[in-house]
């Protein structure tokens, strides 16, 4: 568990998907480190719960109900953060979807494209929106939450959209990091490990005949056998690396001491 951190304390952070799961863990970790945290997602009660936990512990947090796939909603949300806390200094692009799962010949191409939009385009858009103020300040931290599937694209068959989007997100991250080298703005990938969240629950609830018995059995077994990290364990390894200057790196929660 982090405590107040000299580099992060007082910073303004925005965590997408901060209503539950890993995003909530990151938001709570940042708040513990002393940052003021805005959490963005669609489900208002989940955002409210994250904000309430931060407030209970004496921190400052703000709920931003918005769809990351709606550019107008992102503009409004950012304006609210700037007006309330000031310009975003730490951005964690965590919101993502694992759907569509299933045989690629049966996947709705519109759903595949929608996943690309949420998992990649929205993250890039948000980064581009916060970059001008980060560059003006010569300090910024952008973290894009990926998955181990980017290193091993065949690890989840019938998850073509997910594999594609996380690989694209990592390429985007490393390219942007190289472009921004020396500016004070770092851009890194975070692979959170296998984490006990609603996303994993949703995968276990899918029909094994559709997503494939092997994939389904693997997800059921890792939950049953207690192999999943808690969101807090995973998030701790992200937050503790934010104060550093490294950029263009892949941070893997399973490499860290969590
Ligand atoms: N759990 C794992 O084992 C695991 C492993 C590898 C990578 N990851 C990655 O870790 C990140 C978090 O996953 P998780 O397991 O914590 O998932 P989760 O429990 O499903 O949470 C996902 C979060 O993203 C938000 N979100 C999804 N679509 C959104 C949209 N269109 N607009 C705004 N917010 C949206 C959700 O909020 P709303 O639905 O309320 O909008 C929710 O807060 C993802 O990038 C995921 O790919 C997870």
Outline the structure in words.
With 258 residues, the protein is an alpha/beta fold. It has one domain (12-252): NAD(P)-binding Rossmann-like Domain (Rossmann fold). Helices cover 47% and strands 14% of the residues. A seven-stranded parallel β-sheet has the order 3-2-1-4-5-6-7, sandwiched between helices. α1 (21-32) crosses α9, α3 (71-84) runs parallel beside α4 and α4 packs parallel to α5 (160-179). Residues 16-17, 19-23, 41-43, 46, 67-69, 94-97, 118, 145, 147, 192, 194-195, 197-200 line the site of NADP nicotinamide-adenine-dinucleotide phosphate. NADP nicotinamide-adenine-dinucleotide phosphate is lined by residues 16-17, 19-23, 41-43, 46, 67-69, 94-97, 118, 145, 147, 192, 194-195, 197-200.
Keywords:
seven-stranded parallel sheet; globular; alpha/beta; binds NADP nicotinamide-adenine-dinucleotide phosphate; 258 residues; Rossmann fold
Mean residue pLDDT: 96
Shape: globular
Strand content: 5-15%
Written as H for each helix and E for each strand, in order along the chain, the element string is EHEHEHEHEHEHHHHE
Count of the domains: 1
Tell how many strands the DSSP assignment holds. Answer: 7
Poorly predicted residue ranges: none
The computed structural class is: alpha/beta
Q: In which range does the helix fraction lie? A: 40-55%
Strands of the widest sheet, in order across it, are 3-2-1-4-5-6-7
Distance between the termini: 9 Å
Bound molecules: NADP nicotinamide-adenine-dinucleotide phosphate
Per CATH, the class reads Alpha Beta
């Amino acid at each position: 568990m982090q405590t107040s951190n000299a580099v992060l304390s007082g910073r303004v952070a925005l965590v997408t998907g901060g209503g539950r799961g890993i995003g909530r863990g990151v938001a709570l970790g940042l708040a513990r480190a002393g940052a003021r945290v805005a959490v963005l997602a669609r489900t208002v009660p989940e955002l409210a719960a994250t904000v309430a936990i931060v407030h209970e512990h004496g921190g400052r947090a703000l709920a931003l109900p918005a769809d990351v796939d709606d550019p107008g909603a992102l503009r409004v949300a950012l304006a609210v953060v700037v007006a309330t806390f000031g310009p975003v200094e730490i951005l964690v692009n965590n919101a993502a979807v694992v759907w569509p799962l299933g045989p690629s010949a049966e996947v709705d191409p519109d759903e595949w494209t929608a996943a690309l939009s949420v998992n990649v385009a929205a993250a890039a858009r948000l980064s581009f929106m916060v970059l001008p103020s980060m560059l003006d300040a010569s300090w910024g931290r952008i973290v894009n939450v990926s998955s181990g599937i980017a290193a091993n694209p065949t690890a989840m068959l019938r998850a073509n959209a997910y594999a594609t989007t996380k690989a694209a997100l990592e390429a985007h991250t490393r390219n942007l990091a190289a472009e921004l080298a020396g500016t004070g703005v770092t851009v890194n990938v975070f692979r959170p490990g296998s984490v006990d969240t609603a996303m994993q629950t949703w995968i276990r609830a899918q029909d094994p005949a559709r997503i494939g018995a092997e994939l389904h059995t693997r997800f059921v077994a890792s939950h049953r056998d207690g192999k999943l990290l808690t969101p807090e364990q995973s998030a701790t390894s992200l937050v503790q690396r934010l104060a550093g200057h490294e950029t263009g790196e892949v941070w893997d929660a399973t490499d860290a001491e969590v």
